Amino acid sequence: MSTHETDAKPSDRIQGANTREQVLATVGRISVHAKNVHIEAMRHGRHDLELDIDRILAATRDLTDRVEQLIGAGTQAIWSIGGLNPAAQQALRHELRTPLNAIKGYGEMLQEDLASLTGTPLQAAVEHLASAANDLLTLFDHMVALSVRKSHPGAIDEEAIPPVVSDKPQRLPRDRDTSSTTVQSGTILIVDDNEANRDLLSRRLTRNGYRVSMAVGGQAALDALTEADFDLVLLDLMMPDINGLEVLQRMKADVRLRMVPVIMITASAETDSAIHCIEAGAEDYLPKPFDPVLLRARIGACLEKKRWRDREQDYLRRLEAHTKDLQESLKQQTATSELLKVIGRSIFDLRSVFNLLVEYCVKLCESEHAFILRFDGRVLRLVADHNVLPDMKAYVERHPITPGRGSGAGRAVLERCTIHIPDIRNDPEYTYYGTLAVPLRTVLSVPMLRGDEVLGVIAINRHEVRPFTDSQITLMETFADQAVIAIENVRLFEEVQARTQELAHSVAELKALGEVSQAVNSTIDLETVLATIVANAVQLSDTDGGSIYVLHEASGEFEPRSTYGMDEAVIAGFKAKPIRIGDKTVVDQATVQRVAVQIADVHHDDASRVHDSILRAGFRALLTIPLLGADRIVGALVVRRKRPGEFPKKTIELLQTFAAQSVLAIQNARLFHEIEKKSRELEIASQHQSQFVANMSHELRTPLAAMLGYAELLQEGIYDALPKKSLPILRRIESNGKHLLGLINTVLDISKIEAGQFQLNLAEYALGTIVETVLVATESLAATKKLAFNIEIAKGLPYGIGDEQRLTQVLLNLVGNAIKFTDAGEVRIAAGAANGHFELSVSDTGPGIPPEERERIFEKFRQVDGSNTRAKGGTGLGLAIAREIVEMHGGRIWVESTMGQGSTFRMELPMRAATGGAT
Ligand code: ADP
């Protein structure tokens, strides 16, 4: 049957026979040791091991039977070259593999179980059994190596030949203690058609701490994999239904299973296929029989790799999600900032903000379309939309949305919060579109709120049931806020503009009013005032012309006193046909009814109410404000416009102010004229009076002088000696007469001053002489009151030029007052010169003069004690005359005083009085 058969050499044949003998002998040894293990186990009472030992015995029997069959006498031909021919090897390996693996596997399990019983016969028996099983394997290896060398001499590097038992167990560290105590985690699926293999593997892995599931074949494995998650699959290569490679390929083709690592379980001869499997995506392979250490190492490594891969996958997934989130929020932020920019730019243009907003809503929230609706306090109306189907849009435009639960937007207004309806078909309250077929499913409506007030709603909709995400809802709420900001901006801007305009207008009004009142207050020229008023009235009322009429009560005619913007023809027209009381024109009506009267359009009014020349000049609208005094009609203010139209209330109010100002100006002017007339009359009267007093005083002086003269003569005894007793009476007549003369002189002086007839007689004088004259005249008075009287006259005073008599009169008056008001102490006169002036002072130790009186006492008739019961006499004219005299000399007079200590009247006199003397 084989080409090798005929080539067989005798030496090969001998070797073949030897090998056969060795195989039979080793199988025999295995059988003996297996029985021995059983016996020893029973002897040690280890019934717990019986099941495994039975399996070993059964496998031994199976092995023996197969060896007998395969290499019995009748099949010697297969040993033709050196060892087995390749076909025979295949058969042998296949046939013997299963029982041998079972023997070795269960043997190792026993070894592990009995590790603590070292040195006992049972343990020794198990060791023998294991070593015999190993020997058989070594023998197979040897045979295979031999046959390969024979068939390809020199071609193969011995090291490269994969050993049947691929890894040499003895090279790996055996660490049974660790293996039994280290608890591993992971769920492993064992796929093997051989029950012993499954059993051995699962027991070993369970012992190592793994969770284990088993499948008896390829299909069962695929079923199990779809039902549960596994961390690792141990997959037998050769299986009757679907073989391992195909299961592996199907797993790799399945996205869900692709990542589950697979370790192939291979028989010693299947190394090539195992490599195939690794190429197809298996992680590794494990040769049968299993070496426990190798098994643990490979599974551990594989699971560790899987864990890392899982972690990596998880990390990647999270990274992906995170990146997606970031991208989304970046998109949202970009949109938000773009929107803010537009809001900032478009203070005037709300529409473009809304248009951009709906566009972003659709783009960023993956909605089919978007609406913006404004709420007017009653209904919501469409103001912007994007992608809305035409019939839907038309419907919304025709059916403004009312607050209520029937629509998303209406509900948002009602509830004042975001409304999210995942599917309107599942929302029995949603009725808005009625019978109109709309593809709407998921609806999101966000109210635009300023405080509690709803300004509108932003709504986005989807044509499928796909609820919006939290981040989309948040974004929409941000958009709603921004819409509110935009609306607010526009509102504030408009408000500010309106205010600014109002303010500008008020400023203009105030300016005009200021101008008018300034004119009224500062100008007595009525024409100027009225011209200012009418000009301002026309400008501020935005009219084309105006007039102020003043009523002449006597004639009943309204005289146009001032006009603005009216041409000569009109003015001439007024002159030709004056407006008058009772003529039923608007001026007449306004003044009689005492209210403002306006005509919005003369074309639609009674023409007789308007003066012909006004009609001719093309004026269309006019406004008349009556000028009213407290009890009479003063006149009227009229403004006229070529454009028809009502006059606003504000204009009427403003013109009323102007009217009041005009009345004031007209009345002021009247009063001013009256006052002027009165004062002229008064002046004349006063002149007459002064003249009369001056004449009178003069006339009184002559008889008085005669009386005094005769009294003097009588005293001197010129008319005979008089009785002694009459002398004191005569003296009293004389002194009273002198007093009266003084009084008359004073009155005369004052009236001269008032009549502007007071004059100085300038001549050279010596100040010292004046002082001494006064001293002589008043000494006795001071002595009577027991007052000290002192004078101080500086040496070498120059002569002055002035009215000596009048200056004496002044000093006499000051000294007289000093003595009159001082009850104890001293009166002192000082005369000196400084800086080209004479300095003259009269000091006393009297009561002093209160500060507020110190200037007033120089006024006519002014006395500190003005009562009738005052202690000291006097007219209150002395100081007034004194000041007049001093000032006529070009000097000044004043008083310094300390209450309770005394007063000092001081004079400064130029040494030379100005010639002529000023009045
Ligand atoms: P009369 O005739 O009242 O003195 P005068 O014009 O001379 O009029 O003085 C006005 C007033 O000034 C006096 O009534 C007095 O009240 C006050 N007065 C003037 N001189 C003195 C003084 N030396 N001491 C106090 N009061 C004085």
Structure described in brief:
This protein is α+β, with helices and mostly antiparallel strands. The chain contains 24 helices and 23 strands.
Instruction: Provide the gyration radius in Å.
Output: 70 Å
Helix run count: 24
Proportion in helices = 40-55%
Which percent range describes the beta-strand content? 15-25%
Query: How would you describe the shape?
Result: elongated
Poorly predicted spans: 1-8, 153-183
Count of strand segments: 23
Mean pLDDT: 84
Spatial strand sequence of the major β-sheet: 13-12-11-16-15-14
Distance between the termini: 175 Å
- Name every ligand kind in the structure: adenosine-5'-diphosphate
The major pleated sheet works out as:
6 strands, antiparallel
Oligomer: single chain
Backbone structural class: alpha+beta
Task: Record the SSE blueprint.
Elements: H1 3-7, H2 10-43, H3 50-71, H4 86-113, H5 121-151, H6 176-181, E1 187-191, H7 195-207, E2 211-215, H8 218-227, E3 232-236, H9 244-253, E4 262-266, H10 271-279, E5 284-287, H11 292-345, H12 350-364, E6 369-375, E7 380-386, H13 390-398, H14 408-415, E8 419-421, E9 442-450, E10 453-462, H15 470-522, H16 526-540, E11 545-552, E12 557-564, H17 568-576, E13 579-580, H18 586-593, E14 597-599, H19 612-616, E15 621-628, E16 633-641, H20 649-716, H21 726-755, E17 763-765, H22 767-784, E18 788-793, E19 800-802, H23 804-821, E20 826-834, E21 837-844, H24 878-888, E22 892-898, E23 902-910
Parallel strand pairs: 1-2, 1-3, 3-4, 4-5, 18-20
Antiparallel strand pairs: 6-7, 6-10, 8-9, 9-10, 11-12, 11-16, 12-13, 14-15, 15-16, 17-19, 20-21, 21-23, 22-23
The structure holds adenosine-5'-diphosphate.
